[in-house]
Each structure stands twice: as structure tokens, then as C-alpha cells.
Structure to design on (560 residues):
């Protein structure tokens, strides 16, 4: 099935900001997502930048606060924001903000009750691209990926697990070593179980350590980010990236916190960086 | 009293996006507002752009969706977004979205029960500027004003009522003739009473018609705006502006609606336009 329901479409920066819904076979639920298509020539296909959101977010947060449309219009990039988990009455949840709905961590859960619906890796990396290719002028050979916090973890790990699939990878304040921090440990224990060997296949730091790689990474994080030391730890990527020959551009931005005020400030630079690589 | 309570401050585009609260003597309530201060030299004072929001909004809508910070940082402009009405348990309200809280129309109400708290003109044009001058590096000789919909009405009328106070005036999809349209008639009837002579003192079209003026106006509105024909009617300004010698730049933007997707698309152009005049 590739039926797509249009929830809204608004003209913005010469293009169209849309919100759509469809029935996902990966998650077994209805899923919403946002797509911005910039102005473009008829018959043109455009590179796409995937943006994966953080804990508690939906497709809407970055759409409203991310300030990406001006840069996407300038560079001719399609911008897609999926949801962060399956949702709905029949979908398992947890009272905590960092588990269950809003906290899918971009992995396919292996443990009950999560494993039925929480198949966000399959959804984001396979099902949604195939669906979008049928409905939007996407050039699927030119995909980039980025994300924030939990979504930064998603961007890094999906790219590391699919060599060549994404031509460019960046992140805003990502969780880089989920196996070592409370957010990741809680999610992985629930979704994947106690076998830490499995965890390492979804942990950017561990994957780079054992030799998986991408050519280069752009990461921004604020030094006033309230989660920097306990949950994010981007500095630990420096050693393994050096060892693995990954060109890591890690920028510690003075005074910035974990919010969309931080993300929106550096969004245009990330889009320009992706555009340079996607259009090379 | 000039006490200011800081609700939040976030680093953004090299400056600070703040939200503050204070006790207003004009409205007799606590009032919130948002201020963006761009990066600037110590001891510098900066021009300020007032942004008045539309029906149902608070200070937060434009702060989250308006995409003004990049341009304000580039041009060195302070951006202030007040609330749209007094609020609180003791403040009169109405079930309709277009009367009462969230719908102050930037006038001082003359009729009960509104007249006690609904004194938004005094608040926005006098009390808040005086308060801000004490707490932020504002050059009060260089004020510009803009707004959206009801707030576009506010920008036009406050500027027309205070010749010379604002050096630049623009609007997004403004109500230009409230006396002639349902939103304005309902508000004026409730807040000002049945004497239409008084209405004309708060109606941009009427004021320009009787000879009040500003040197120039920049107005953008989308041709897919759902309120264009019934509530906004910007085209009727053309004749009176020509007659009054006001340089009206009215741009009908194809495909755009009444939303913040429209506003954010043209925000940077408005800020550049104000900056040119405020820094001349």
C-alpha cells in the first residue's frame, strides 16, 4: 500500500510544507510525517535530508521551530521529518518521557511488548523512503541524514549501519554512546534486552570502535546543554573517529542549550554542509 | 514599578531570546512578553522592531514560528513581541476566539466590563517601551512596528496615531479597515461602543482618509489567505494612500495563506526593510 493522506499543505519560501499520514506496515499503525518540497523545475528530482527528532517530539517540532525552509529553498533540498515512535491506543507506552511513545530510538525492538509496533529503523530507513519516492520528486541516490539528541543517535546509527545509503551525516547534540548513558541504557534494556552485544549494533561509538565508518561527520553541541555530560558525551567520538579515519567536525558552541533555539541557529549551516555533499 | 521577572533566556543566533513577565499598571495584570537581543557591542544601543500578534496568539507564536532571529542578528535589531490582551482569572473574557482574552485589538477599551483591564494601546505604545528602555539596550528614537492580522491593524493604527514615534511601519496580512469588517466591528462595538466616530480613530483606512499619514507602508498578504476578502481588504488602502501621498508597497503573494508559514517566508525581508529605515 502506498496511500497517502494529506493533512495539510502550506506555501512557504516558494515551496510547500506538507503534513501527511499513511498506514505503516512496519509499525502496524498510522504514521504522520512532514515533508518540505522547495521550489524546483518540473521533472527535476531533488536530494533529500532526513531529520530525526528527539525525545517527546513528533514531526511537528522541527517543522514549527527548526527554521530549515529558507536554506532548503536556497539549496534545493527536500526535508523530511518522521515521527519518533508509533502512536495510538493499541501501542504500548510508558509513563516516563524517555520510553515508549515519543521515544522509539530509531531501532526495531526485539522484546515484548515493544517488538510488535516499535520498528522504527525499518520504518525510517526502508518503508518511508520507498513510500516517499512514489509521491515526491526525490532522488534516492542523494540522501543525507541528521537529527537532534535521540534523533542524532538515530542519524549516526542508521548511517553507520547502511554504508553508502546516506551520502552525508550530521547531528545536533546527539547521544553518541547510548550503551553508556541512562537514556540509552533504559531504552536498549527495554527494546533489545540484556544482551549488550546487540546494543553495540545500535551504538555509534561502539560501531565506529569496531570499524564501521562514514567519511565525515558534522556535530554541533552547546556547552550550556543540560544533557551534555550525562547523556550526550560527544567528545568521546574524537578518539575513535581519529582511529577510524573519520573526518569528525565537532563544534562546541558557547552558550547554547539543548533547545530548538540552538538547533535553529545552526540549521542553515548543516543544510549547506549537506547540500555541498549531496550535490557534489 | 519596573520589576521584571525572567521566565526564560536561550542563546540563539549569537544573541538572547528571552521571555519576561511584569506587573502592568496599564492593564492591572501580570503581562508576559518576548524580547530578542542580537549580538552587539557593549554600550551600543540598538533599534527596536515591535511585532504585534494576531487573534488567539500570545508572545510565543512568533517567537517559535516567526523565524526573525537570523535577520535581527544580521541587522542588529531588537525584536519585541507583546501579548495580545490582558489575561487571568479576574479579566473579562468571551467564549469566541475573536473577543476578550487573545483579542485585545491594541486599543484602550471604553466600555464595561472591558475598560478596566483592556488597555492595550497604553500598554504597548507607552508602558512597555518605558519599561524596556530601563532593562534592554534600546534606542527609543529608532522604533519600527509591524504585526500580523489583528496585529497588523495594531501596527498601522498605533503608528498613524503617533506621528514620528515609529520610523518604519509594515504589516503581514493586516486588518486595514476594522470598522468595515466583522472582526473589527465586533471588537469595536464591545470595546468602544456604538459611536462610530470613535471607531474611526482606531481604523487605518479611516485615519488615512481624513489625512493622518506615515511616509511609507510595506504590506504583504497571500492571495490564498482565507480571510483576505472578508476581513483584511488591503486593496482598499491603495486609493487613500495615493491621495494622502503615502508610498504604499502592497505585495500580493501568490499561493500564501494566513499562517506563520507565510509570515516566516517574508519576515527577513520586512526586517531588512525596517533596518534600512531605522539605521538611516
Amino acid at each position: 500500500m502506498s496511500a497517502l493522506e494529506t493533512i495539510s499543505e502550506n506555501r512557504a519560501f516558494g515551496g510547500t510544507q506538507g503534513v501527511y499520514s499513511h498506514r505503516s506496515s512496519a509499525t502496524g499503525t498510522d504514521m504522520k510525517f512532514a515533508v518540505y518540497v522547495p521550489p524546483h523545475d518540473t521533472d527535476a528530482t531533488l536530494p533529500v535530508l532526513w531529520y530525526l527528532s528527539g525525545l517527546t517530539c513528533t514531526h511537528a517540532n522541527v517543522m514549527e521551530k527548526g527554521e530549515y525552509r529558507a536554506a532548503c529553498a536556497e539549496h534545493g533540498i527536500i526535508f523530511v521529518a518522521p515521527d519518533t515512535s508509533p502512536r495510538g491506543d493499541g501501542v504500548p507506552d510508558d509513563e516516563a518521557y524517555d520510553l515508549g511513545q515519543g521515544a522509539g530510538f530509531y531501532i526495531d525492538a526485539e522484546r515484548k511488548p515493544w517488538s510488535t509496533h516499535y520498528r522504527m529503523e525499518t520504518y525510517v530507513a526502508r518503508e518511508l523512503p520507498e513510500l516517499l519516492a512514489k509521491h515526491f520528486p526525490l532522488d534516492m541516490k542523494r540522501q543525507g541524514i541528521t537529527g537532534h539528541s535521540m534523533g542524532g543517535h538515530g542519524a549516526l546509527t542508521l548511517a553507520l549501519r547502511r554504508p553508502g545509503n546516506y551520502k552525508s551525516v550530521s547531528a545536533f547534540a546527539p547521544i553518541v554512546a547510548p550503551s553508556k548513558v541512562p537514556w540509552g541504557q533504559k531504552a536498549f534494556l527495554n527494546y533489545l534486552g540484556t544482551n549488550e552485544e546487540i546494543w553495540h549494533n545500535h551504538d555509534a561509538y561502539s560501531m565506529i570502535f569496531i570499524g564501521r565508518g562514514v567519511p565525515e561527520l558534522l556535530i554541533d553541541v552547546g556547552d550550556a546543554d543540560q544533557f551534555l555530560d550525562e547523556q550526550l558525551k560527544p567528545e568521546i567520538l574524537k578518539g575513535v573517529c581519529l582511529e577510524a579515519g573519520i573526518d569528525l567536525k565537532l563544534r562546541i558552541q558557547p552558550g547554547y542549550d539543548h533547545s530548538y533555539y540552538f538547533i535553529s541557529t545552526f540549521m542553515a549551516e548543516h543544510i549547506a554542509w549537506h547540500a555541498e555533499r549531496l550535490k557534489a
